[in-house]
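Thread: Newbie trying to understand structure tokens

Hi all, I'm a second-year student working on a class project, and my supervisor (Dr. K.) asked me to get a predicted structure for one chain before our next meeting. I've only ever worked with sequences, so writing a 3D structure as a token string is new to me. If someone could post the tokens and maybe explain what I'm looking at, I'd be very grateful. Here's the chain:
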Amino acid sequence: MVRRTLCGVIDSSSKHCLIANDHIIIITLCDTTHCDCAQMDFPHIPRRHVISNVTLDDYNCFPIPFTLYYNDGEIDENLCYGIRCDIVNKSNEIIYTSHRFIPVLTNKHPKTNIHIVVGPTEDV
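---
Reply by user tm_fold:
Sure, no problem. This is what the structure looks like when written as tokens:
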């Protein structure tokens, strides 16, 4: 298997979005072909749809650069994939979210320079 990367930046929808020391940033790559994952946040995504994820906990301001690794052999060019970001506190409550999956990898969607915008959960 060949290890590949998705990279980009996470930004906030508002200058009022602040990251506390106890917040954890979770970036998730999923197969979105056969599921209604559009409104699923990290704790609720079925494991079988998750291709890869990464957690970041050493950032305190936006923008946040990220790199997510995945195995190229797990990607089928005929399927659809998406990436999202959820930022949780120490109680595992979602504070900020991208609210949706951003299409990546297949169907001419980007593999790099991915821009994820997060906002407060009450914006849903």
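A couple of things are worth pointing out once you decode it. The chain has a mean pLDDT of 85. The beta strands are 3-12, 24-31, 50-56, 64-71, 81-88, 94-97, 102-104, 114-120. Feel free to ask follow-ups in this thread.
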